[in-house]
Design a protein that fits this description.
The structure holds 2 protein chains of 2 kinds.
Chain A lengths: L1 E3 L1 H4 L5 E6 L6 E2 L4 E6 L3 E6 L4 E6 L6 E2 L4 E7 L1
Antiparallel strand pairs in A: 1-8, 2-4, 2-7, 3-6, 4-5, 6-8
Chain B lengths: L1 E7 L2 H16 L6 E6 L3 E4 L11 H6 L4 E3 L7 E3 L3 E7 L9 H18 L5 E3 L2 E6 L2 E11 L2 E9 L23 H5 L5 H26 L4
Parallel strand pairs in B: 1-2, 3-4
Antiparallel strand pairs in B: 2-6, 3-5, 6-10, 7-8, 8-9, 9-10
Helix pairs in contact in B: 3-5
The chains are: A mainly beta, B alpha+beta.
Amino acid sequence: MELKLKDILKNRAGAVVTLWHAKENAILVKRQDLFEITTDKATFDVECPVDGVLKKIYKKAGDKVTSEDTLAEIIVK
Amino acid sequence: MEICDIGIRGFEDTLAFQLEMLKKRIDGDIPDTLIIVEHPSVITLGRRSLEENIIDRAYFEGKNIPIVLTGRGGEVTCHSPGQIVCYPIIDLKNIGKDIAGYIDFLEVTVSAALNEIGVNAGRVDGKRGVWTQGKKIAFIGIAIKKWVTYHGVAVNVNNSLEPFLKIHPCGHKEIEVTSVMQQLGKTTDINGVKEALAEKFISGIEGTVGIKQKQGVSA
C-alpha cells in the first residue's frame, strides 16, 4: 500500500519529514510510531496503519511533503 | 477537562510530567487535562529551530539561562516567571483529528481569555499565535502523539520582555512582542489570568465534544 498523509494534513498545510522510526525492510506492527512530520507549529508522530514490511521510503528526513505525496510503500501482511 | 496548576516548575521537570500525563491520556487513564505552569527563565527551541534565530547567545549564558532543544513544533521562544504556559493534554480523536484546526482552537481560546481580562487580542490571518496592537502576546508550539496533544501555548502576562530582544521570536525577525502588563499598563493578578484561561479551555473543549457527540461523530 502507498502511505499518504491526506487524512492528517487535510490539504491545509505542508510539512517536513523530520525522522523515521523504521528502516526499509523493517517489519512493521500496526499503530507503531513510523515517522515524524513537522509543520510550522506542530510535530506529529505518524503511526503505521497496518501490519507489514516497509518496502520503500520515498520521502526521507528533511524532505517536504504535501497531503498528495506518497511517503512510503508498505507490503501488507 | 481537568485543570492542573503546578505553579513554578522547571522546563525539564515539567516535560517529564507532561510525558507522564500524555501516556496516561493515550491509555485512557485520565481525562483531557490542562497543565498550567510558570517556568524559571529558559529558552526553548522547536524541532526546526535555526541557530541564527538566537541573536545573543552570550546574553543567555551570562545570565545562566539554559537553551533547551525540545520535540515540539515552532521555533525559538522565551519562558520566565510571570508568563503562563498552558500544556493541554487533549485527545483530538474526540474533537476532530485536525492539526491546523487544533492550533486555530488554541488561538481562539487564548484570545477569548485575554479579551475577558481586558486585552483586545485575536488571531491574524496568515500568522500563527495571538496578537494585540500588531504585537504578539501568545506563542504556540505543539506536539501530537497518537492524536493526543502535548506542549502548547505561552502567554506573556507580567514577565520581562527583554529576553525576546535577544532572539527572533518564532523565527521571525520582524515580530514585536508584548504582554498583558504592557497592554494594561499595570501588573496583573496572574491567578485571574489563569482562571480565565482555564474557563475558556474548559468551555471550548466541552462545547466541542458536545457538538461532535450531537452530530454523531465517532472518535
